[in-house]
Design a protein that fits this description.
Tumour Suppressor Smad4; 2 domains; three-stranded antiparallel beta sheet; about 45% helix; binds zinc ion
C-alpha cells in the first residue's frame, strides 16, 4: 500500500509514503497481517477506545480493523479485499486522427511558403528596380533634363523597394501568425481526452497501436480508427 502501491483505491495524500505499509492474507488459514514499511508518517490502527495507535513492525488484523495511513487516510481492512480494482476506462480517440492530419498538412504548407519568402524578397527587390527604370524610359527627353530624370529614378526605386519589402513583410507576418495558430491548435487538441496529456510529436497511428495513454498516471485505454 502507498502512493506506488497496488491497493484497490488510490492513495495520493501527501503524508502517505510511496511504500507505506503492506497487507498479507494467508488464504489457507485466513490470517491477515498488516505491516508498516518504515513509512515516514506512520501506520495507525484504531483501538477500542477510538484513538489511533501507531503500528511498529507488524500485527494481526481482522476485516473490521480500521487503519489510518499517514495523517488522514482511514479505511477498513475489508476494503482491501472487497473493492475490485477500477477497470481501465476505454476512450475513443478517432477524432485525434484528423487533428494530427490537419496540423501536419498545415505545417507542411506553411513551411513551403516560408521558404519562398526569401526568394520573394529578392525577386520583388529586383523587379521593383527594373519597373521604375523602365517607366522612366517613357518620360520624353524634352519634358525634363537628365538630372531630374535620375533623381526621379532614384526616389522611385527607393519607394518601390520599400513598398515591395513591406508587402513581403506583411505576407511573412501573416505566415508567422498562421504557424502560431496551427501550433496552438495542435497543443490544445492533440491530447488525451481523459487527462489532457499532450501527445507531443508522437504519430497518431503509433499511439493508437499502443492502445493506451502515454501518460503513466492516466490508466485509460485507447480505441479508434
Ligand atoms: Zn490520459
Amino acid at each position: 500500500m502507498g502512493k506506488n502501491g497496488n491497493q484497490p483505491f488510490p492513495l495520493t495524500e501527501s503524508s502517505i509514503s510511496r511504500h507505506h505499509a503492506s497487507f498479507h492474507l494467508d488464504e489457507k488459514s485466513g490470517k491477515m497481517i498488516l505491516r508498516d514499511e518504515k513509512s515516514t508518517n506512520g501506520t495507525y490502527i484504531k483501538a477500542k477506545d477510538g484513538t489511533f495507535k501507531r503500528l511498529y513492525g507488524e500485527t494481526a488484523v481482522s476485516l473490521n480493523t480500521i487503519v489510518r495511513l499517514g495523517a488522514k487516510h482511514t479505511f477498513a481492512i475489508k476494503e482491501l479485499i472487497n473493492t475490485p480494482p477500477p477497470p481501465p476506462e476505454t476512450v475513443d480517440i478517432s477524432k485525434l486522427r484528423s487533428v494530427y492530419e490537419i496540423y501536419n498538412s498545415n505545417k507542411m504548407t506553411l513551411e513551403a511558403k516560408t521558404s519562398n519568402i526569401m526568394m520573394l524578397r529578392i525577386a520583388s527587390m529586383s523587379l521593383s528596380a527594373i519597373v521604375v527604370n523602365i517607366l522612366t524610359l517613357f518620360i520624353p527627353q524634352d519634358v525634363m533634363d537628365q538630372t531630374t530624370k535620375v533623381a526621379i529614378q532614384a526616389i522611385g526605386t527607393v519607394l518601390a523597394l520599400v513598398l515591395s519589402w513591406w508587402l513581403v513583410d506583411m505576407k511573412n507576418k501573416d505566415l508567422i501568425r498562421r504557424k502560431d495558430q496551427n501550433e496552438r491548435y495542435f497543443r490544445k487538441n492533440y491530447c488525451c481526452p481523459k487527462c489532457g496529456f499532450h501527445f507531443g510529436t508522437r504519430i497518431y497511428d503509433n499511439i493508437l497501436a499502443e492502445g493506451r495513454c502515454p501518460n503513466n498516471n492516466c490508466k485509460c485505454k485507447f480505441t479508434g480508427k
